[in-house]
Amino acid sequence: MADPFDVRMRFTSQLQHLNASVNSSQKAAHYALKYRDMDEDLHSCILEQLERNSMNNRANIMYFIEHLCDMAQRENHLNFVRMMQKDILMVVDAVAPSDGSGAANVKVVRRVLQGLQQKNILQPDTVTEIEGCLKERDIAAEQGALTPIDANGQREHPPNQANAAKLNGVARPDKRQIEQRIEEDRERHKRLRESIWAIGDEGDQEFERLWDDVSDIGEDDYIAAEEDAMERRQALGLE
């Protein structure tokens, strides 16, 4: 039997090093399901890392949660799913806090919640309730991004360098974190475009759709084909 402390430490390390790639999320999800007998302890690791890590990493953990619940559901180990259903509000509060520090993660939370609802992991009523909270956080984030207005209705000067790192009591990410987030979002958008263009295993259905879109061959088509053939022969010097 594996050492519980060692399993917890390895899983924690995987959560801390998650990135935008699907492989990293799937690897961590496989590891959690491999040690499913420790599911409660591993679930507590997820909640713990959501509280301790940067906002970028919390976004990666949010995407990981969707992979974990999906795989757990397919492998019929529903304890992970049940625990996540019970603590989903806590997860959302950690990934996109109400203080505005996780404003960049609001879209991430929405996307994952929609995915969990489509997979029947979350009920529509639950997602609708959380969406109400997220709308308020969107508004708070937009207001926080504006330059403050003084009592005379004039915009105040933007914060100086000393205060730039902290606005409205919320710590702003440093340059490295911003660049990392841009790169990870770019990778996710790339995968999203690939999934949109991906063709599923539909057999001949795709061919049938294309065939139905093509009009019947008429006399004009035969004439055009003969003219094209004649032009090609002339270009090759055969006539």
Q: Give the biggest sheet.
A: 2 strands, antiparallel
- Note the beta-strand portion: under 5%
Q: Give start-end ranges of low-pLDDT stretches.
A: 143-170
Q: State the order of secondary-structure elements, H for helix, E for strand.
A: HHHHHHHHEEHHH
Number of H- or I-type helical stretches? 11
In one word, what is the shape?
Answer: elongated
Strand order of the largest sheet: 1-2
Radius of gyration: 26 Å
Backbone structural class: mainly alpha
Average pLDDT, all residues = 79
Q: Tell me the total number of β-strands.
A: 2
DSSP helix fraction: 55-70%
End-to-end Cα distance, whole Å, is: 83 Å
Report what the structure shows.
This protein has eleven helices and two strands. By secondary structure, it is mainly α. The protein is elongated and about 80 Å long. It starts with a helix and ends with a helix.
Give the gist of this structure.
The protein has about 240 residues and is mostly helical.
Main attributes of the structure:
2 strands; 11 helices; two-stranded antiparallel sheet; mainly alpha; 239 residues
Write the layout of secondary structure elements.
Layout: H1 4-16, H2 22-34, H3 39-52, H4 55-74, H5 79-95, H6 106-118, H7 124-145, H8 161-164, E1 166-167, E2 170-171, H9 175-197, H10 205-213, H11 219-235
Antiparallel strand pairs: 1-2
Helix pairs in contact: 1-3, 2-4, 3-5, 4-5, 4-6, 6-7
